[in-house]
Protein 1
Amino acid sequence: MRRLKSLILFGAVAAFPGALAYAQVAQTPQALPPAAPPAAVPAPQPPVVVLPPPLWDPRDAQELLAFISQIGGEGLDPADYDPAGLIAALRSGNPQVLAQVASDRFNRVASDLALGHVRGKEREDWHIPDPDLDNGRLDQLLRAAVAERRVSHTLRSLLPTHPQYRDLKNALSITPRSEVAKSNRIRLNMDRWRWLPRDLGAKYVIVNVPAYYVALVENGTTRWRQRAIAGAIKTPTPMLTATASGVILNPWWEVPKSIEPEVRGKKGYVPVKGKDGKVQRWRQPPGPSNALGHLKFVMPNPKAIFLHDTNARSRFNNDVRSLSHGCIRTQNVLDLATELLTDDAGEWTREKIDEALASKKTVQANFVKPLPVYIVYFSSAAATDGRIVNYTDVYKRDAKVIAALLDQQPKPASAVASR
C-alpha cells in the first residue's frame, strides 16, 4: 500500500519591475508597466496523521489466521499472506509486534478480496476503475474489525456479490486439485471479477469480449442478450466502462486517424478541410453503406469505444467475431436502443424511432436515465444452469494474468491498497 504523503509547499512570487529603458538619442524614460499582483500563496495543509496499528486480541489474530488458511476457496493463495509470520507474531507474546503483523496481513487480504490480487499492467488494457477500497477506507475497516471483533465478517463483506463469481467459486470447489490448468483458469476469472466495482448498478449493459455477447442486465436478471463483434487481434477492444446517455440515429461516422488510410479518397467519404484548405479528417455520411449502420451509442470515454449497428450484419453469423477496429458492433442493437429509450416512461417509442430513421436526418435520442456500460474480458463464465463455459482467449491474455496470480512473493505493506 503506497502510503500517502503530505507535501506542503510554501512559496512567494516576487514581482521584479522591469528596468527603465532609455532611448539612446532623447534619453526619455519609458513608463514602467504596472506591477503584477502577487501570486496567492496556498494555505498550508495539515500533515497527514499516521496512526499506529490497533492492538489485536490474540483470539482475533487466530481468526485472521484461520481465514487466511481457507482463502484458497476464493481462488487466492494463502502463502501470499505469510501465515507463518502471523504465527510467529502470536507466539512472540509481544502486543506491538502482533499489532503490526496482524494489521499488515489483514490489509493484504482485504485489499486482494476487494480489488484483486493482480494489479497494474499485468491486467493488460484494463481501464475500469474500482472504487471499492482506498487507503482511508481500508484503515477504517481494519480498526472497526478489531474494535468490534468482526474480522472474518469484515473480510467476507469485501467479496464480489455477482452470481458469476459465486458460480465460479462453486466450480473451483469441485475441481480436483490435479486439474491445475482448469483450476487456474477459474481462479484468474474470479480475480477479474474482483477488478470490477462490487456494485455494477441496478441496470447496466455488459459486453464480454471473449464470448462475443452483449447483455442488458437489470436487478440481476438478463433482459436482453445478443451477439457482438469485437476488436480484431491487431486492434483489440480495450476493457473500460462508460456512461451511456442515449443514441444517435442516422449517425455520421467520424473516421479515426488509424483507419483514415483505408478510406482516404474513396467514394462515399467526405473530407473535412481546415481554413488552409487542407484535409483535416474524413467522415462517412448516414446511409445504407455507413459503417455504423442505423445508430451508435453515446458513451464518451478516452478510448472512443462505443456500441453501434453495422452495415455488414452477416458477420454476426461467424463463430469467431474479433473483426472490428475496436468498437462493439451489436446485433439487433435497434431493439436494445428501443428498450432503453422507452424505459422510465421515455418518449422515444419504436414508432418515433422509425420515423426518425426514415427521415435520414441525424438525431440524438436520450435515455431518461443514463446507465453504465462495462466492456470486460472473461474467458470462463457460468451458464444459467451453473455450468462453466470456456471461451477462446482471443487476445492471449490469460497466461500473463495466471503468471501474476501465481506469484507467491508477498506484496510489501506499502503497496497493499494502491492501484
Protein 2
Amino acid sequence: MESNDTGDEPGTDTGTAGRPAGGATLAANRPGIRIWAGPLAVVTLLMSLLATMYLGYVVNPEKNLHDFPIALVNQDDGDIRDGTPINIGDQITEGLTRQVPADKVDLRVTGIAEAQRLLGNGEVYGAIVLPSDLSKRLSILGAGAVVPGDIQQPAITVWTNPRTGTYATQIVALVSRQALIQVNSEVGRQLTETVNTALTPPPGGTATEISGASRLILAEPIEVITDQYRPLPAGTGSGLSAFFVTLLVVLAGFTGAMIVHTMVDSALGFVPTEYGPWFVHRPTAPHSRLRTLLLKWGVIAVAAPIVSGVFLGIGTLLDMPFDHGLAFFLFSTLAIIAVGVTALSVLAVFGSAGMLVNLILFIVLGLPSAGATIPLEATPKYMAWLATFEPMHQIYLGIRAILYFDAHGNPGLSRGVGMCLFGLAVGLILGAAVTYLYDRKGLERRNRR
C-alpha cells in the first residue's frame, strides 16, 4: 500500500501544490516583519526628533531672537546750548527704546550700578552705556566744526558679557551696531542743522561753509566702542569650556548608568554577556528588583566622586582655571549622582526601552535646550520651555557659575544645586516605588514567553 505522506508537519494544510497555505506563510513571516519594522520605525522617529531639535536650534538664531536682555545706561548730565538745556542721552535712550524691536530684545533702562550687577550675575548679555559728558562733547564737536582747535569725538561704550557665551556677545554687538547706526545718523543730522544755523550770516554778511572733513564727522558724530565686561581668563575656550565640562558631567551620569546597569545585571545573571565569540550567562542571583536597583545606585554613588576628581585633575593639568575647585568637585559629584540615579531608575521601570527614554531625556532634548552655545533667547521658544526642567541646562548653569562667576548663587549655582537635588529625589522615589511595586506583584526578572 502506497504512503500518502508528503513530509509536511501534521495538521498543515498543504493545498494542491503541497505548500503551506497563504495564512500559514504569513504567520511564519510575522517574526521577520517585526525584526525589520521595529528597528526601522524607532530609528526613523528618533532621527526625526534629532533633526527637529538640533537643526531648529542652530539654523536661524536671528529669526528666533526673542526677549534677549540688554541693559541701557544713560549717564548723560546734559548741557546748555544757547541758553536752552539739552540732553542728547535722553534723546538717544528714547530713540533706542523706540527702534529696537521689543519682541526680540528686552532693553532694560537702568543705572550703571544695576547694569554692572546684572552683567556680573549673567542676567544680561551686554550693556549700552552713554557717558556723562555726551551732550557737552557733542556741543564741543559742533563748535569745533567752525572753530580751530583739538577736539575729542564723543563715544558710547557697548559692553559685551563674554561669560554668558561667545555667540551671545556676537548678538549684542550686532543688535547694538544696527540700533546705534540709526541713532548716530539722527544725532548727526540734528547737529549738522544746529551748526548750519549758527553759521547763517546776517543780511549782507559773508556765508561760512562747513569743511568736507567736518561734514563727515558731523554726519556720524558718536564713536561706538565695543568692549568686554570682565574678560574671561586664558584656558576657558572663549567661554566654551563650561559647556564641554557640562557635557562631560552629564555623560558621566548617563553613560555611567548604562555601564553599571549592564555589568551588574550580567554579574547577577539577569542578562548574558558576550566577549567576542564567548557567550557567558551566569546563574541568576536571588535578588529582588529593588535590591538590584539599590546595588546599582550604590555603585554610581561611589563612582561619581572618583569621576569628578578625574575631571578636576585632567582640567588642572590642561591649565583650565579652577579657582573654586572644591565647589566644582562637590557640584559635579551631585550632578553625576542625580543623572545616574535617575537614569538607572528609568531603566528599572521601563527595562530595555529605558535606554531610549534616557537617550531622549538627557541627550536628544538636553543638548539643544542647554543654552550653552547659542543663548535660549536666540532659539525657538519651546527650547526655553524645555530648559525649565531639562537636566543639562540646570547643570550648565551651575558649572558656568562656578567657572566664570566666582561660584556665586545668583548666576545659576543655586538653581543648579536645587534642580539637581529635585531630580535626585524624583529618581529615588520613582525607582524605589516602581521596583517595590513590581516585587510585590511577583514580577520577577525572568524570561516570559
